[in-house]
Specification:
By secondary structure, this protein is an alpha/beta fold. Helix content is 28%, strand content 25%. It has two domains: 34-346, TIM Barrel; 381-482, Immunoglobulin-like (Sandwich). The chain is built from 13 helices and 22 strands. The strands form four sheets. The protein has an eight-stranded parallel β-barrel, surrounded by six helices. Strands 15-19-12-11-22 form a five-stranded mixed sheet, with helices on one face. Keywords: Carbohydrate metabolism, Cellulose degradation, Glycosidase, Hydrolase, Polysaccharide degradation, Signal, Xylan degradation.
Length: 483
């Protein structure tokens, strides 16, 4: 049964759902008894994005903000960057809400994903009244102004959204298609590239998760663009799904796009059900969330998964699909649903050796006396340095492993950045930088690394366009191998 995708709305309706979850649900999913880590930690360690759609008006709600801060490394504006929000009157631009989203991303070290520049929906009436060269000029002007305003902040743009119909034809109810014809998509992409040469440019649509007529039409468009040198870097698959209906050809579909030389991304994931929910439905939903994340992890060019919201309390689904909802990962009261642990298990259940720390919390100087470092034997350490990066920023996850037969009590890791990078915020460590040299000392609670064990820490950083990884690490003065 195909997903019908109406215009996006923020539904304020609270669905009263029963969320009784039994221990059998967790057992059926084979999820560890202890939570592995935050989803952000797990995604970062896997080199993937995990994002959410943000309504900045919700940030004043402490539970919403706490989850937003700690669980995601990417944010997309739910509505604040669409045409009706950014250019309500012709050539009169309004960026207040969009700037709030951009500021939130910058302050929390999250990648910012732009949504969307050209879409037939949520379009001011003045746009639809134009035709011919006037409409084309207005479209190019809008793309240029919005992309330029957020230049250097947005890593990727959904340049054109929902351009195709279910049978693979161009969408007939789009004023851009009606009045400008097939060429408007190429015009929009070229305008976006000219406005922001560094942002990745994506086409985004729904009901394209499987190999079908619609996804094949987009596949043919991407193949044509790549052959002719039209700028396109990525394809977004919205994935507004129904429980039990993850397409069997989804991985095959994403891979065929990746084979064209573009990145792919799950952009608007939610998995709805008939309400009220129950333990069986929630278990099916959890298995489906896990499956979607596993599909992305299996496709090397899949950049990550964005969930279209945080809590069922504010999901758009109940306001559009009568009797359906409970589509997100947290319930109306911000309690984690089984889907949360299922997503964690999709990442392999990576067990951290340190408690997760919200990146917005600055590093805490140890209150206990420093431990005199025990130097490991030569060749007794290994460092794994993983990075998730965007235009001028990045998040690094570093794992320090003691490969010797002797425990380490108290550790200091040193390395140098080769390309002028700078640490802006760190957690699970006390990190300082002088020039290119970085010194990382254990926090008060993670100074011990048993033989064969490891500790990990992370930090946010900035770069000037080149983000080459450090080529050498030393632990307590001894050179380490690089994993």
């Amino acid at each position: 049964m195909p997903v019908v995708h109406p215009p996006r709305r923020s539904a304020l309706r609270t669905a009263a759902v029963a969320l009784a979850v039994t221990a059998a649900v967790g057992a059926a999913l084979a999820i560890p008894a202890q939570a592995a880590s935050t989803l952000k930690d797990l995604a970062t360690a896997a080199g993937k994005d995990i994002g959410f759609a943000l309504d900045p008006n919700r940030l004043s709600e402490s539970a919403y903000k706490s989850i937003a801060d700690s669980e995601f490394n990417l944010v997309v504006a739910e509505n604040a960057m669409k045409w009706d929000a950014t250019e309500p009157s012709q050539n009169s631009f309004s960026y207040g809400s969009g700037d709030q989203v951009a500021s939130y991303a910058a302050s929390t070290g999250k990648e910012l994903y732009g949504h969307t520049l050209v879409w037939h929906s949520q379009l001011p009436g003045w746009v639809s009244s134009l035709s011919g060269t006037a409409l084309e000029s207005a479209m190019k002007n809008h793309v240029t102004n919005v992309a330029t305003h957020f230049k250097g902040k947005v890593s990727s743009w959904d340049v054109v959204n929902e351009a195709f119909g279910e049978n693979g034809e161009r969408r007939s109810d789009s004023p851009f298609q009606q009045k400008l014809g097939d060429g408007y998509i190429e015009t929009a992409f070229r305008a976006a590239r000219a406005a922001d040469p560094n942002a990745k440019l994506c086409i985004n649509d729904y009901n394209t998760d499987a190999v079908n007529s619609k996804s094949t039409a987009i596949y043919n468009l991407v193949r044509d663009f790549k052959a002719r040198g039209v700028p396109i870097d990525c394809v977004g698959f919205q994935s507004h799904l129904i429980i039990g209906q993850v397409p069997s050809t989804m991985q095959q579909n994403l891979q065929r796009f990746a084979d064209l030389g573009v990145d792919v991304r799950i952009t608007e994931l939610d998995i709805r059900m008939q309400t009220p929910s129950d333990a069986t439905k929630l278990a099916t939903q959890a298995a489906d969330y896990k499956k979607v994340f596993q599909i992305c992890l299996a496709v090397s060019r899949c950049q990550g998964v964005t969930i279209w919201g945080i809590t069922d309390k504010y999901s758009w689904v109940p306001g559009v699909f009568s009797g359906q909802g409970a589509a997100l990962v947290w319930d109306d009261g911000y309690a984690k649903k089984p889907a949360y642990d299922a997503i964690a298990s999709a990442f392999g259940g990576i067990t951290p050796t340190t408690p997760p720390v919200t990146p917005t919390t600055p590093p805490v100087t140890p209150t206990t006396p420093p431990v005199t470092p025990t130097t490991p034997p030569v060749g007794g350490c290994q460092v794994t340095y993983g990075v998730n990066q965007w235009n001028t920023g990045f998040t690094a996850n570093v794992v320090v492993k003691n490969t010797s037969s002797t425990a380490i009590n108290g550790w200091t890791l040193t390395f140098s950045f080769p390309a002028g990078q700078a640490v802006t915020q760190a957690w699970s460590s006390v990190t300082t930088q002088s020039g290119s040299a970085v010194t990382v000392k254990n926090a008060a609670w993670n100074g011990s690394i048993p033989a064969g064990g490891s500790q990990q820490f992370g930090f946010n950083g900035s770069h000037g366009g080149t983000n080459t990884a450090p080529s050498a690490f030393s632990l307590n003065g001894t050179a380490c191998t690089i994993g």
